[in-house]
Amino acid sequence: MWLRALRLENFRNYESLELELAQGLNFFSGPNGSGKTGILEGVSYLAVARSLRGSNDGDVGRWGEGGFGVGGDVITGGLSSTVVLRFSKSVGKEVTVDGEPLAKLSDLVGVLRVAWFCPEDTWLTKGQPAARRKLIDLTLCQLDPVYLSSLTGYRRTLRQRNEALLAWTPDEESDRIVEVWTERLVEYGSTVVAKRLEFVPRFSEAVSQYQSFVAAGDTLSLRYRSSVPLGDDAKDGGGRSLEQDEVAEMYHAALEKRSEDERRRGFTLVGPHRDDLDVRLNGRVLRTFGSQGQHRTAAIALKLGEAAVLDADGQGVIVLLDDILSELDDERAGALIDLVGGHGQALMTSTRPIGDGAGDEAVARFVVEAGKVERQ
Questions:
Q1: How far is CA 4 from CA 1, 79, 255, 340, in A?
Q2: What percent of the chain has pLDDT above 70?
Q3: Helices and strands per DSSP (H, E), number in the chain
Q4: What is the rounded CA–CA span in Å between residue 222 and residue 238?
Q5: What is the Cα gyration radius of the chain?
Q6: Domain architecture of the chain: domains with CATH
Q7: What percent of the chain has pLDDT over 90?
Q8: In this predicted model, what pLDDT tens digit does every residue of 265-297 receive, in sequence order?
Q9: What is the rounded distance in angstroms from the CA atom of residue 277 to the CA atom of residue 281?
Q10: Is the Cβ–Cβ distance between 354 and 15 less than 8 Å?
Q11: Are strands 318-322 and 346-350 parallel, antiparallel or unpaired?
């Protein structure tokens, strides 16, 4: 899959923009603040119905406008489909595919797969567990509709259970309400954990291969750290995968063990919302000892590994690289450009022009300045 055309309306500093994109590398150069990142952000809306930059919907529209529109022509298996997402402050988000409205925004996920990288992604390895869970969730949601549905159900149920725990009093009715939400939480949460356990070894293998490219001689490995005691067989994602019913039994037992503490504290203490991805460099936990350079190269390997996993079935993925060249020397930058091209389509931004080493006709060059885009 790839994006043949991108259309933006009242999005960031673009009043109206229509771009014809190349199937390979699309390189956008221009000064900071010119609108380069907004192009990548628009693509992310077509893939997951939100900004992968982390911006709120109300912040990405042009100043003074009541909403925005993002559209694109997606090519999959030689067939074209037109995706349009519109946002207004009064109605919210609406999505159509070939003119037909989607019943749920989540139905858009998977139509177009993306992997986004920016320099701030070093927080993947040195930040809090939430950033690493987000990486796993975003990747799996684009690959597996069951995972997306289970994760959505889990988050909704977790909020309800936490409200029940916060309102809990020592009586049978309060216990019954908590138990109802507990059963649903285990149902959704065990599916989430089981699928993460199955995913992490595949992800770790891909990341390890890219780590050898970005930092020869260093070994990067990943392990899933669950707040649910999973037993020696699972080894926190380093051993065999567990079936959903096996995880469910262990999860329910863990919640029972912490039940008194949860009622006293008023929130859920066990589950996938408290899990982590353990990133180790040469056998040591990277978060606690890694240098800035080691965090940077590990983050690049993680995002390239994400792209490889998303593209494992051969359907394609769009790699979005925001100002990544500023982090690399010319030789490494040229090699990275060649490597990214192996996944199909890529959109890359930089404040400097692309180097001569990547100057073949497969690269589509664009200059961005003050919200205007011109192809060279």
A1: 10, 11, 49, 18
A2: 92
A3: 11, 15
A4: 8
A5: 22
A6: 1-113+313-376 (3.40.50.300), 119-310 (1.20.1050.90)
A7: 65
A8: 999 999 999 999 999 999 999 988 888 888 888
A9: 13
A10: no
A11: parallel
